[in-house]
Design a protein that fits this description.
Radius of gyration: 22 Å
Structural class: alpha/beta
Helix content: 40-55%
Order of helices and strands: HHHEEEHEHEHEHHHHHEHEHH
Low-confidence stretches: 4-13
Mean pLDDT: 90
Oligomer: single chain
Shape: globular
Distance between the termini: 73 Å
Number of strands: 8
Number of helices: 14
Amino acid sequence: MESVYESALAVSLDPMMLSLAVPLLVFAYYWFFQPSAFLYFHNWYWRTQLGLQVYTVRDGSYNFCYSELGRPSARPSLLFLHAFSANKDMWLPMLRYLPKSLHIICVDLPGHEGTTRIPTDDYSLQGQAGRVHQFVQALELHHKFHVVGMSMGGGVAGVYAATYPEHVCGLTLICPAGLCSAKESCFVKELRRMEAGIPGPISLIPESPAEVRRMLELCTFRFKLPQQILQGMVDVRKDHNAFYLQLLLALSSESSRYRLQEVMEAIPVPTQVVWGLHDQVLDVSAVEELKRGVRNCRVDLLENCGHTVTLERPRKSANLIASFLRSLGTLPA
């Protein structure tokens, strides 16, 4: 009996067993009790794997948080502008598939993650484009660069290129906001109900795991996540929902709703448009407006893909961007 006890004790104290057990226990704890911390760890892990470094640059009283991969060179840098209620880490799934020779900057847009949030700030597409210009000046990006933006960030990117053309050499717009479409999407219909004062949840501002699941059904084409991740997303977002509502109202205001369409003819640089054919947030029919209004416009439409292109089709979207960059000479053929 004693030998059996001693054997069991020896196994339980075996360093190899402990080295395996401790990480598993830590993983289980965060998975079941702190899923939001699991999400933060996931993003930190992928930033580390890709070699992204996180920095802050200050301009007066305003702080911009951004991540950077690679170093500036004679080739144009890439500036990435994220979607509504996302942050600089939104691009991680896609960055894995981009050429490693690129110099990449992903910034948190105003009020998001590590960038300053001022309640009285202008969060319209034009207002955010002004803040992006402030970031570019603070970072001293002297050479012309290529701007990539998705959804809200796509609208900001397009407005930025039209407003500050001297800084931009190319543009990639992924299902951008700020356009009038021939067909109203499910989300735009939801906005109409909100503006009419009809009560109901707002799909892009979820407050429960069930509402996060509804948001994914709206934003993606057959993309599902485990219940714990849904809960983690609620925990990460809940303290920011009041700001997200303020932001949504600013983006849907008369001065912002169609701002990209109003200025698109002033975009002087080659432009790539990528859109999921099953987008229920911003209808793909709006791509026709860009084709008519932007002089040098290439369009890539993705089958079996919704609004969150870089999450659903990260390799494909990276390949499309790389192909466009090669056509512009930013990447070698």
